[in-house]
Amino acid sequence: MSIIKRSDVLFPSLMNEIFKPDWFGGLENDKSNVPAVNIKETEKDFELELAVPGRKKEDFKIEINENVLTISTESNTEENVEKDYYTRREFTYSSFKRAFTLPETIDEDNIKANYDNGILKFTLPKKEEALPKPKRKIELS
Fold this sequence. Notes:
This protein has 141 residues and is mainly beta. The chain has 1 helix and 9 strands, in the order E-E-H-E-E-E-E-E-E-E. It has one domain: Immunoglobulin-like. It is rod-shaped.
């Protein structure tokens, strides 16, 4: 699994949106194959988790292009069973694609991804200037 960064161009994002999942309307068409997602913010980063059991890490295609993190995968299986004069052929095809608009505060160069026990997890660190500043005491003169 690798993350491909295609562009260093940063576009402004809306102030009220941290992530805008499926900005292209992907969830409106078919929810059956779209994995569930959890997004959590901490002081230092965002954590994004997708439930995608039954895959291998090599199955995922992960890209960053113009502040958009895109995660996709395709899989197909085929089974032939021949018994007497009857032949049964079963095959399945499944795929999904999810896109998340990243806020400008994300340090795209240091995004980490891990796939373990059916959970695809991303750690999206915040840029240094977006981290909370320590409290400072000001003395009166």
